[in-house]
Amino acid sequence: KNLEVERSVDDLLLIIINYQLDPRIDP
């Protein structure tokens, strides 16, 4: 497996979660 891809996916998930918690944050 490509660890870099998995890491980037995890980062995207964190960004999405943060956005849902605080919609005022700009992507």
DSSP helix fraction: over 70%
| Low-confidence residue ranges | none
Largest sheet: none
Number of strands: 0
User: Structural class, from secondary structure content?
Assistant: mainly alpha
Number of helices: 1
Assign an overall shape: rod-shaped
Work out the strand percent.
Answer: under 5%
Overall residue-averaged pLDDT value: 81
Total discrete domains: 1
- Radius of gyration from the alpha-carbon trace, in angstroms: 11 Å
Tell me the span between the first and last alpha carbons: 28 Å
| Order of helix and strand elements from N to C terminus | H
How would you explain this protein's 3D organization?
There is one protein chain. The protein is mostly helical and 27 residues long. It has one domain (1-27). It has one helix and no strands. The longest helix has 19 residues, at 3-21. It is rod-shaped. The protein starts with a helix and ends in a 6-residue tail after the last helix. The mean pLDDT is 81.
Give descriptors for this structure.
27 residues; mainly alpha
Chain-wise SSE layout:
Blueprint (H helix, E strand, L loop, with lengths): L2 H19 L6
Report a brief summary of the structure.
With 27 residues, the protein is mainly α. Helix content is 70%, strand content 0%.
